[in-house]
Amino acid sequence: MGCVHFFIFTLIAISSAFVAPALAKEFIVGDESGWTLNFDYQSWAMGKEFHVGDKLIFKYKQGYHNVFRVDGVGFKQCSTTASLGAVLASGNDIITLTTPPEGSGTMWSW
């Protein structure tokens, strides 16, 4: 079976590299659709600003999906070999943004 991957989010603008925790926001990836197949996550991310301290929440039916943090190379090669941490598979996974993106402002996950 071919690898299915999603473009999670494009950080369009980061107005501050450091945001006080009280100002941090939580984003449910995909809103009410959650983390699923056949969803346009690039459109979902359009117009949103993500800052250090914000939380990305991945909601899905446990056992049917998972989340890997990968770099751009891993994403483009559809590879988790150089995953940036353990696979997330709880069905309610939270990734806290701890650093601003490097270079283009794009971060990857699938």
Automatic annotation (TrEMBL):
Its main location: membrane. SUPFAM superfamilies: Cupredoxins. GO terms for molecular function: electron transfer activity; metal ion binding. Keywords: Copper, Disulfide bond, Electron transport, Glycoprotein, Membrane, Metal-binding, Signal, Transmembrane, Transmembrane helix, Transport. GO terms for cellular component: plasma membrane. It is found in: Membrane. It is a single-pass type I membrane protein. It holds the Pfam family Cu_bind_like. Residues 1-24 form the signal peptide. This is Phytocyanin domain-containing protein. It comes from Lithospermum erythrorhizon.
